[in-house]
């Protein structure tokens, strides 16, 4: 894989397990092929949706190498880094490069609410440790640390910090970033329920969640917006919204895995402490998914 553009749809892929909580690479491969057939532009491994906090270093290596082998350079393979210490984040970046990953998604320090100076130093240390292109994940809602415009101003001195996953929940931030930095930073929407809005405002891509179960619909919305066919995109997006809202819940992993199972490209197996949904909650979520499948639009 040569240098790539942070544009288009990048699924934050779920990590597939069997009933014994072991990595299920054949099922992961089935979903990966569905993503490719749907037209995605890259994949992200080991994110929040990939159960980052429960997968081992060896499993990350297996996922990266398996994906590279399956994809044969067709689209980039990006590995997420979510670590508590700068030293460990740097080590993970070096491992990702050694394993052959094409890029990194980088979260701020985990478990400690670093201030602006500390957060900037953390990102800079990782960037300087690798040649890989980096997308910074700006999600102050979930991770309590915001990457401000002033911080980006400093961080773009690092040439390989080239994109931002925009998850502030403030769609105006897309315009602020474009006004300040032009095309220097690619902007990818990281919130499924705001994707159409942010793409219309000029976001370059979409780090998507429900794409794991509905790849073709996700890619179609992206392509229609970029072709200026907003009314056509909106029709699909309105159908999609009840499903996209599953991405906003603390149990997004369980909800999206249930959707993958319902569409035939995944299973609902998760790794503890997460548990498979049951009872009224499972019935309620499954109804949302089945209603969506029943009304699935013709593309």
Automatic annotation (TrEMBL):
<dbReference type="Pfam" id="PF00701">
    <property type="entry name" value="DHDPS"/>
</dbReference>
<protein>
    <submittedName>
        <fullName>Dihydrodipicolinate synthase</fullName>
        <ecNumber>4.3.3.7</ecNumber>
    </submittedName>
</protein>
<dbReference type="InterPro" id="IPR013785">
    <property type="entry name" value="Aldolase_TIM"/>
</dbReference>
<dbReference type="InterPro" id="IPR002220">
    <property type="entry name" value="DapA-like"/>
</dbReference>
<feature type="binding site">
    <location>
        <position position="207"/>
    </location>
    <ligand>
        <name>pyruvate</name>
    </ligand>
</feature>
<feature type="active site" description="Proton donor/acceptor">
    <location>
        <position position="137"/>
    </location>
</feature>
<comment type="similarity">
    <text>Belongs to the DapA family.</text>
</comment>
<dbReference type="GO" id="GO:0008840">
    <property type="term" value="F:4-hydroxy-tetrahydrodipicolinate synthase activity"/>
</dbReference>
<keyword id="KW-0456">Lyase</keyword>
<feature type="active site" description="Schiff-base intermediate with substrate">
    <location>
        <position position="165"/>
    </location>
</feature>
């Amino acid at each position: 894989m040569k240098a790539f553009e942070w544009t288009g749809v990048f699924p934050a892929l779920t990590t597939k397990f069997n009933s014994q909580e072991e990595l299920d690479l054949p099922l992961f491969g089935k979903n990966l092929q569905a993503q490719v057939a749907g037209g995605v532009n890259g994949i992200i491994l080991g994110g929040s949706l990939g159960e980052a906090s429960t997968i081992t270093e060896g499993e990350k290596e297996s996922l990266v190498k398996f994906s590279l082998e399956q994809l044969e350079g067709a689209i980039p393979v990006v590995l997420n880094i979510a670590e508590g210490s700068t030293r460990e984040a740097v080590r993970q970046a070096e491992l990702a490069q050694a394993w052959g990953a094409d890029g990194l998604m980088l979260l701020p320090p985990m478990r400690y609410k670093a201030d602006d100076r500390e957060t900037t130093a953390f990102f800079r240390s990782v960037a300087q440790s690798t040649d890989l292109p980096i997308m910074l994940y700006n999600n102050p809602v979930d991770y309590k640390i915001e990457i401000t415009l002033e911080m980006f101003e400093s961080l773009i001195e690092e040439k390989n910090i080239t994109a931002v996953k925009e998850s502030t929940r403030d769609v105006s931030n897309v315009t602020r970033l474009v006004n300040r930095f032009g095309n220097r930073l690619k902007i990818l929407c990281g919130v499924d329920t705001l994707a159409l809005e942010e793409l219309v405002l000029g976001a370059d891509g979409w780090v998507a969640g429900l794409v794991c179960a509905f790849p073709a619909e996700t890619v179609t919305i992206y392509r229609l917006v970029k072709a200026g066919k907003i009314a056509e995109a909106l029709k699909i997006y309105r159908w999609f919204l009840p499903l996209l809202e599953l991405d906003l819940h603390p149990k997004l992993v369980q909800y999206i895995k249930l959707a993958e199972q319902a569409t035939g490209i995944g299973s609902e197996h998760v790794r503890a402490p997460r548990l498979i949904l049951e009872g009224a909650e499972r019935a309620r979520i499954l109804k949302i998914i089945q209603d969506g499948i029943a009304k699935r639009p013709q593309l």
